[in-house]
Design brief:
Helix content is about 20%, strand content about 30%. By secondary structure, the chain is of the alpha+beta class. The two termini are about 15 Å apart.
Length: about 120
Amino acid sequence: MTSNWLDVALTQLGKTYPSSGAFVAFVMNESSIRADGQTGEWSTALLDLVYDVYELNSVENTRPGDLLFWGIPEQPYSVAIYVGGGHFVSVDGNSKRVKMQTLNQNWYPSFTGTVI
């Protein structure tokens, strides 16, 4: 069992995934973190993942390891793992590769969730 799922996420930099949900599912599976409704990949809607988070938070209260979501809780369309310092790891929509990215006003998450 891997105790630090951020380490697992960072080992995936540069690898390709079909969606941000598939990337987060891989990291959770590899870290032996089991969410209630988890399967190998989440749907592109990511709705099941929202129901599995322990606690929903505002973006201002985000801590390293929290999940960042874009969209509304009833209809999210992207997810990432917050690393800290305004940075997150997620699948780039164009290249489908895992990249370290920076929060900015043009691509700012709507809400966050704590899984562990």
